[in-house]
Design a protein that fits this description.
There is one protein chain. The chain is mainly alpha-helical. The chain folds into two domains: 4-48, no CATH class; 69-310, Orthogonal Bundle (MetI-like fold), CATH 1.10.3720. The chain contains 17 helices and no strands. The longest helix is centred in the last third of the chain and has 30 residues, at 281-310. The mean pLDDT is 86.
């Protein structure tokens, strides 16, 4: 006891001196810390709404507890399995199709010898990222318009028959949604890979050239191994958001003819809470919590798998 007390007092004195010497920095930290607590952590108290029968007059804290009744109600939704499958399939489709393309673009730009054209390709591929989702969906409607759309006119001139309405076909919705998203985010997603490739030592390439390695061999033997940690980390992060299919774009592209493939959890939550007129906020919160728990479980599973296979993980 006598030896522990002086040791603790010395640590306290050391901490006090360090704090007093840098009190300005700690004061600056109070602003972002307060922002995070108010706008990120305090709203989490609303999760309790998923276990209550919400009464707007009583508020969140005064509403009666109903346990897991909202989650049982979710499992009893007639088309819940279809909504869940739509969400998961769109996410997996987007990850499988969208993950390798930015890597290929980054490797291509890194190996491209002409700097002027390289910058032009980069600028052109980045620009769609800054177009709003509303404009993107509007462009899709114009391009695939059965009467005046550019693609529809080309289709008619080549095949001699009118093009069917793509937005009226439920089977076409996943392809239209995913590939338009890849086009919009391809250049922007490649930035982090290009940044990772910049850390490759040029002397390694010079040594490989002396040894007679071709450009393709250098890509697979030098560039790609340097990208692997970044690829694995981004794959883990993507897996952690599998259930988070973008609401705005899906909702804007959705109609009564393609709703069997376009109804996802995010659009269903919005309709339950806002559109149906009932304002079932407790049920919508339960769906959101269910969504978050699945994402958390998938993130941990993928992270653990990546750690065992490659020794690279988030934690």
């Amino acid at each position: 006891m006598t030896t522990q007390a002086p040791a603790q007092s010395k640590r306290f004195i050391k901490f006090k001196k360090e704090y007093l010497s840098k009190w300005q920095l700690y004061l600056f930290l109070l602003v972002p810390l307060t922002h995070v607590i108010i706008f990120a952590y305090y709203p989490m108290t609303g999760i309790q709404l998923a276990f209550k029968k919400f009464n707007i007059a009583a508020g969140i804290w005064g509403s009666p507890w109903v346990g897991f009744a909202q989650f049982k109600k979710l499992l009893m939704v007639p088309n819940f399995i279809n909504i869940l499958l739509n969400t998961v399939s769109l996410s997996f489709y987007g990850i499988l199709a969208g993950l390798p393309l930015p890597i290929f673009l980054a490797l291509f730009l890194n190996a491209f010898p002409y700097l002027r054209y390289k910058k032009l390709v980069q600028s052109v591929s980045y620009m769609p990222h800054f177009i709003s989702v509303v404009v993107i969906v509007g462009l899709l409607h114009q391009l695939f318009n059965p009467r005046i759309g550019i693609i529809s006119v080309f289709y008619t001139n080549v095949l001699g028959t009118s093009m069917p309405d793509i937005f009226a076909r439920a089977s076409a919705f996943p392809h239209l949604y995913v590939w338009s998203g890849i086009w919009q985010s391809l250049g922007w997603s490649s930035i982090i890979y290009i940044a990772a490739l910049s850390s490759v030592d040029p002397e390694l390439h010079e040594a490989a050239i002396i040894d007679g390695a071709s450009r393709l061999q250098r890509v697979f033997r030098l560039d790609l191994p340097f990208l692997m940690p970044t690829i694995i980390i981004l794959t883990i992060l993507s897996a952690g958001s599998i259930m988070n299919v973008g609401f705005e774009k899906v909702y804007l592209m959705q109609n009564r003819l393609n709703i069997s493939r376009s109804e996802v959890i995010s659009t269903y939550v919005y309709k339950v809470a806002m559109v149906t007129g009932g304002g079932d906020f407790a049920f919508a919160t339960a769906i959101g919590l269910f969504n978050a728990l699945i994402n958390f479980a998938i993130l941990n599973i993928v992270n653990l798998t990546a750690k065992k296979v490659s020794s690279i993980s988030l934690w």
